[in-house]
Inverse folding.
């Protein structure tokens, strides 16, 4: 590959994609492999391209279009599909429904090379087939084969953990719902999540705010094949709310409260290896993205968090859809 003045490149083979940047974004002006003509020279200069790379056959370097696909193969797990793009980018897509798993420390160490960067979504983000999970992008136009080989052999950094569980039980609490005073609004929300992530609801029961009835409903859900249980409502500190008390009697509670907004008043527990997850009523109003997406998806992928993992969720825990409902006042 050789760099020459644009006007000296007529009749030569263009060695890389040249880009035109306009008000509508960037597009390919001339593709790699194009034989440059006299007419092309002015078009290239109009785009600020006064020098071009000319393909003169093989040499000892690896170029941007080959760098990122090769390295992506080495740092991605088996549940990620690799799709080479343009201008040194390779796109990473999920092959399965599950949650993204990233070795964050290894990601940091990888990006310290500062030549090839791995850019991802947050760790444990839930995804379905075809979702974009990351991008591998190269900064320089070319690298030595030794440099590329070193990064290719860096080790796995990112993958997608598929959902190991698919059958959920649903226990809807609330004496007012049980007595028919108020209509349940949570089932459609959870059914929509189940459809999206490929889960099935194998048991559903509405119970009053009564500890024993909540416990019995959870047991019946498990008897009917549920691999995880969602309990809705009754998770606040209101005197009539019994969900936490009930769960605490039968399960090991990992956390009462998640450092996220909305749906902070959620409960993560495990009973004989079965995840029990209680979500506050806020998930009805924030149905598009809530603790089910943030935490319950992890549980369905077999990822049981430690208390430290949950504490870390406060970093980025203010979800994009959250809007404070209270009257705002300033403190000076």
């Amino acid at each position: 590959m050789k760099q020459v003045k644009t006007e000296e490149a007529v009749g030569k083979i263009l060695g890389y994609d040249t880009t035109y940047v306009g008000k509508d974004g960037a597009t390919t002006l001339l593709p790699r492999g194009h034989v440059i003509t006299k007419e092309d020279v002015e078009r290239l200069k109009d785009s600020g391209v006064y020098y071009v790379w000319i393909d003169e056959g093989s040499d000892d370097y690896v170029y941007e279009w080959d760098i990122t696909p090769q390295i992506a193969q080495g740092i991605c797990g088996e549940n990620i599909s690799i799709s080479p793009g343009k201008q040194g980018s390779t796109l990473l897509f999920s092959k399965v429904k599950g949650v993204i798993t990233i070795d964050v420390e290894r990601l940091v160490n990888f990006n310290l090379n500062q030549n090839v960067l791995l850019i991802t979504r947050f760790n444990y983000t839930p995804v379905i087939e075809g979702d974009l999970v990351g991008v591998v992008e190269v900064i320089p136009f070319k690298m030595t084969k030794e440099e590329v080989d070193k990064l290719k052999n860096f080790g796995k950094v990112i993958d997608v953990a598929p959902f190991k569980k698919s059958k959920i039980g649903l226990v809807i609490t609330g004496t007012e719902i049980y007595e028919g005073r108020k209509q349940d609004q949570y089932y459609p929300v959870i059914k929509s999540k189940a459809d999206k992530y490929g889960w099935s609801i194998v048991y559903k029961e509405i119970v009053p705010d009564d500890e024993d009835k909540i416990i019995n409903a959870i047991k019946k859900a498990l008897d009917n094949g549920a691999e995880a249980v969602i309990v809705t409502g009754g998770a606040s500190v209101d005197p009539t709310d019994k969900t936490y008390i009930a769960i605490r009697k039968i399960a090991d509670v990992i956390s009462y409260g998640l450092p996220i907004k909305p749906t902070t008043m959620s409960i993560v527990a495990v009973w004989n290896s079965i995840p029990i997850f209680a979500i506050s009523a806020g998930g009805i109003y924030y149905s598009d993205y809530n603790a089910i997406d943030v935490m319950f998806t992890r549980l369905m992928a077999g990822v049981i968090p430690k208390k430290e993992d949950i504490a870390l969720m406060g970093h980025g825990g203010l979800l994009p859809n959250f809007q404070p409902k209270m009257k705002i006042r300033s403190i000076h």
